[in-house]
Amino acid sequence: MEFKDYYAAMGVARDATAEQIKQAYRKLARKYHPDVSKEPDAEARFKEVGEAYEVLRDPQKRAAYDQLGSGPPPGQDFRPPPDWASGFEFSGAGHAGPGEEQQFAFRGDASEFFETLFGRAGFAGARGPRPRERGEDHHARVMVDLEASLEGGARTLTLRVPEIGADGRPQLRERTLNVKIPRGIQAGQHIRLAGQGETMPGATQPGDLFLEVAFAPHRLYRPEGRDLQFDLPVAPWEAALGATVAVPTPGGVVELRIPAGSKSGTRLRLRGRGLPSQPPGDLYAILQVALPPADGEAARAAYQAFAAAVAFNPRAALGV
Amino acid sequence: MPTPDSAALAGRILEEEEVLSLERLSQLCGARASQLLAFVEEGVLEVLSPAPPRFAGTALRRARLAVRLQRDLELNTAGVALVIELLERIEVLERRLGG
User: Which of A105, A212, A224 lies at the smallest CB-CB distance from B95?
Assistant: First the structure.
């Protein structure tokens, strides 16, 4: 297996103090935390850093890890020595109190290296094999198309589920689920699937599965809570004089009245034509005045006549 | 190995149908009740009724985010509140940019 250099992962020296390790962790966690980071590889880096910190923060684990030295020469496989960790006691060494879910985001997704050395009990606060009546609830984020919420209907979702393998170590399993998406669901809301969480041997009842929904970008509509917005191009005369124009809504084409004197950026509301939530959201058309190109004799003449007829200084507010 | 379930599973929208007790919310977040109550005090989470504390289903997302931030970034409650406020402001601004 691949040796993990936890000191390199955290960018600290091998003789770094506990305080220096903590500082390095905080700095890296702020940079790579998936909830706040815009770095492209944030999630992977955060897991790496979290795993390294889990070992280096704990004097027992760190001492055991340090016994391994800096690993085999590059390219060579790492095997733990046969007397690995004799005299060290990891289980229950976590800093979490009982019942707390204090494990890191990489739970169930730690490297083979970490799992081999520290096992599942190596996770701070990881639960021991004490019998429980109910399996744990699982959470996952899923991306669906906006139509799934507009129309409802089943979607096939692929989840990566951590579970305990036959060898007692956690592993990721791909799980494909066919899920009926509730009509009107909004981004950030959760679908609860009763009994689809963890199944524990010995537990009488499985946990629930919670799917946090996000929408894939849509060709026309931008969701905002239960409301939808879209850009509606209008001709200058439609905006200036008022008009009735055809607009696409999720339920089909409708006629929308553009009031005279509208400008780019004007928001027109189509009540109840957003997501079919309870109560339904609204649809907002955001006007974008589109200029006709002056690419023909007639169009050029019309622009010239317009310029001659109307005294208009678009830069009056600039004082020029 | 993917194992597709044959019939589509029907779920419910948690946020629309459920009022969450403090115990349920803490179970769903893997957090202590006292930690959640500290978030309430700081204004990160809103309660529907104070005694006993009950939460709208919509509190779940914020609660989980708050717990993750506190645990992974070792923030105090005020720090979590500030981060969430700023994240929400960024979200609004990015949407305004036409994201």
Answer: A224
